[in-house]
Automatic annotation (TrEMBL), chain A:
Record Gene3D superfamilies: 3.40.50.2300
Modified residues (4-aspartylphosphate): D52
GO biological process per UniProt: phosphorelay signal transduction system; regulation of DNA-templated transcription
Sequence ranges assigned to domain Response regulatory in this UniProt record: 2-122
InterPro entries: CheY-like_superfamily, NreC/VraR/RcsB-like_REC, Sig_transdc_resp-reg_C-effctor, Sig_transdc_resp-reg_receiver, Tscrpt_reg_LuxR_C, WalR-like
Pfam family, one: Response_reg
Domain of life: Bacteria
UniProt domain HTH luxR-type: residue ranges: 144-214
An annotated Gene Ontology molecular function: DNA binding
Record protein name field: Response regulator
Organism: Herbidospora solisilvae
């Protein structure tokens, strides 16, 4: 996989490069700010760009804005936004352009190397990856608590995993359920939330997010 | 504060030193004195109005009249203040503008209790003898001098031969004499037309509060940034390296895991050192044991011989200790960075409710409290706790910087 890294902390940037290279990926560029990131993406058209939210010069949301531009200008490039803390507003902005090949993860997730690499693969394949923390916050912050309250606790577990972008079979193995019962839960959730069912995982995420944030 | 004292000092000097009759200051003072009768006259008319207002307050009509005349007194005060500022060169700060509440009654209430208005009225009254003195001096010295100088025109010889030189002497004395005679006018203008001591204090406190609030946010922001860009990034890297190492160990690749673990170990130690520096930068733990201990640690850490002399019979408030510590840290850092000094000393004393910190160095001098200099931040920080900073740093050195703080807030 061809990857561009944008991270202003040199130590972490080098660490990521080492990790990805060690796992057989091709880090085509590693940069330290939003401008350089967009230039690198335009030049290399990588499979995935790993983007830190906070970068110079403003040290606020440079990376996020660059990521949104990349998703608009290069729809085929997967974007993993990598952040020190969770901002649901950031996640919403990122997903507003569509949930194809996009991810939002806490930086600390990199400690579980296998999971992190799997997330990158999923993003490169056009799936959506949301940090469990993001999902928790969005569900917690939802103003439609009464709608959520109609869900059973098992259905809420399923919804949370759905929001993370997991497929039905992944949910089934995570919750030790049969594939069939997960399907049943999913259609129950859609019915209770008033959403038409869909085959595409990322559409499910988007639908769930949009619904919860309304 | 020091600037104010120095300015006053210069005033006094100017008052007593002679200056030639043709100097522009002497001319301006003469113009001021010549305008005085007009200013006094307007003031008198106004005083009558105020008096009328006071006497008629028993009727309801008097109350708004009095309020109106007090607001007018402000205007009169402004004119007098500008005259004194421009012609007498008295530095007077403008008082706070009149800010009545909404509605007629609030307006009247605000006017009646307006200290600036009442002080202007007091000025119009008290200046009467002062103005008379100045005018008499001007008439006697300038007028008398001119008349005597012109004595050949109205008196024959030999009288004129004596009177005329006497007139010249009077004219030569006139500027100093008038300056002296204007001293009460100056004093009254300064004390009654400017910002009152209370107002000045409130303004100073407002500035100090604004600084303290901004400073608190700026410091939090700095700490957040240091933690985010430094420590947190290091810990993420550390966790990532350990994650990689664990995977290698799971696969039995001992030789691949070893360098990863070694790197993680090194990272962990560096992170601890960085975190320690960060914590010390926030509030040195040694301050818990008192300013003396913290300063001793600071002096020992400064890469230059620093002689520390502390005498604090009474322990200051924690906030004062912190300000004193950060001042000392900043000043010693400046010594190391800019002065080229070979030795420095820091003295702390606590006497009569004041803490004095004196930092000296034998360096090149020339330190200034200009924009963007660390000294300015220092002055603002000490100002926030009602303290002062005094900088003596002639070119060629030595530099002596004195920070004075209250022991307790």
């Amino acid at each position: 996989m061809r990857i561009v890294i944008a991270e202003d902390a040199a130590m972490l940037r080098d660490g990521l490069r080492m990790l990805l290279t060690a796992r057989g990926h091709d880090v085509v560029a590693a940069v330290g700010d939003g401008e350089a990131l967009r230039a690198a993406v335009a030049e290399h058209e990588p499979d995935v760009a790993v983007v830190d939210v906070r970068m110079p010069p403003s040290h606020t949301d440079e990376g996020l804005r660059a990521a949104i531009r990349i998703r608009r200008d290069h729809p085929d490039v997967g974007v993993l936004v990598f952040s020190q803390y969770v901002e649901t507003r950031y996640a919403a902005q990122l997903l507003a352009e569509g949930a194809h090949g996009v991810g939002y993860l806490l930086k600390e997730r990199v400690a579980d190397v296998a999971d992190f690499l799997a997330a990158l693969d999923r993003i490169a394949d056009g799936e959506t990856v949301l940090d469990p923390e993001v999902v928790t916050q969005i569900m917690g912050a939802s103003r439609r608590v009464e709608t959520l309250a109609t869900l059973s606790s098992r259905e809420r577990d399923v919804l949370a995993l759905m929001a993370e972008g997991r497929s039905n079979s992944a949910i089934a193995s995570a919750l030790f359920l049969s594939y069939g019962s997960v399907e049943k839960h999913v259609s129950q959730i859609f019915a209770k939330l008033g959403l038409p069912p869909s085959d595409h995982d990322h559409r499910r995420v988007l639908a769930v997010l949009r619904h919860l944030q309304a | 504060m020091r600037a104010r004292i120095r300015r006053h000092h210069e005033d006094v000097l100017r008052t007593f030193s002679g200056c030639p009759p043709w100097s522009s200051a002497a001319g301006r003072e003469l113009v001021y004195t010549l305008i005085l009768p007009l200013a006094v006259g307007v003031g008198l008319v106004h005083l009558v109005l105020v008096l009328f207002g006071v006497l008629t307050t028993v009727n309801l009509i008097g109350v708004p009249l009095l309020a109106l005349s007090l607001v007018a007194a402000r205007g009169l005060g402004t004119v007098n203040r500008r005259l004194a500022r421009v012609l007498l060169g008295v530095p007077i700060t403008d008082p706070a503008p009149f800010r009545p509440g909404r509605g007629l009654f609030r307006w009247i209430g605000a006017a009646l209790t307006d200290a600036t208005g009442w002080r202007a009225v007091a000025h119009a009254l008290l200046r009467l003898p002062a103005a008379a003195l100045a005018f008499a001096a001007a008439a006697g010295l300038w007028g008398g001098g001119l008349v005597l100088l012109a004595s050949p025109l109205w008196r024959g010889w030999p009288g004129a031969a004596l009177l005329s030189p006497a007139g010249l002497v009077l004219l030569l004395l006139a500027p100093s004499g008038l300056r002296l005679a204007l001293a009460p006018e100056r004093l009254l203008a300064r004390t009654l037309l400017g910002m009152s001591a209370n107002e000045a204090r409130i303004r100073r406190l407002e500035r100090a509060r604004a600084f303290a609030a901004d400073d608190a946010v700026a410091r939090l922001r700095q700490v957040e940034r240091d933690l985010h860009d430094g420590t947190s990034a290091r810990l993420v890297t550390l966790a990532m390296t350990l994650g990689l190492a664990r995977e290698e160990l799971d696969l039995g690749h001992l030789e691949r895991a070893r360098p990863l673990v070694e790197g993680a170990h090194r990272d962990a130690k560096e992170t601890m050192a960085e975190l320690r520096d960060l914590i010390r930068g926030m509030l040195p733990p040694a301050l818990d044991q008192g300013l003396e201990t913290a300063l001793a640690t600071l002096a020992a850490r400064t890469p230059m011989p620093v002689r520390l002399d502390a005498d604090l019979p009474e322990r200051p408030d924690p906030s004062i200790e912190a300000v004193a510590y950060f001042c000392a840290a900043e000043l010693l850092a400046n010594v190391v960075r800019h002065s080229g000094a070979r030795h420095a000393s820091a003295d702390v004393r606590g006497r009569d409710g004041r803490l004095t910190l004196v930092v000296r160095d034998d360096g090149a001098g020339g330190a200034v409290t200009g924009a963007g200099s660390g000294l300015r931040g220092l002055a603002a920080r000490t100002g926030a706790v009602d303290g002062t900073v005094d900088v003596r740093s002639p070119a060629g050195g030595p530099t002596v910087i004195t920070v004075a703080l209250p022991l307790h807030i």
